[in-house]
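Q: Hi! First time doing this. I have a protein sequence and I read that you can turn it into a structure. Is that right? Here it is:
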Amino acid sequence: MSLKRYFLIFFLICFVLTCLCGVLAAVLPTGVGGVLTAVPYIVTMVWVLFIFLKRNQRAPTQAERKKMTLGFTLIFWGYNVAFQILGIAFFAYNDPEIWQNFLLYLKQPQFLTVVLIMVLLIAIPLYLLTYWFYGPQARRMAQKMFGAN
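A: Yes, that's right. Below is the predicted 3D structure, encoded as structure tokens:
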């Protein structure tokens, strides 16, 4: 199975889990709901690794590991940014001031800096966790599941 299929599986599962966690976060208090940001990514990453291990009966190679880590990260942040912009555009349809305010915020270096820092505080650990999980941890899991190296 090509990696494209794993990327598609990752996107579908992660998208559904993100929607579910978004609904949960809306119900929970603000501080608690923020914790759910990384949950869909982590759960989906583990789920896709199990699918990979069962189908291939081996851990990912170094090249597959790098591609999957980068691909999963780009998919997760890509659809989050895309739907963030779509959400703002949807609500701005009836109130154009929302879009204007968003564009004004994008011109503020302080706002962009805070957003970038917040994204990096989540993105870097998730990237490193995925890279580790698809390496040594995947080899240990494959060894336990199949007795293979």
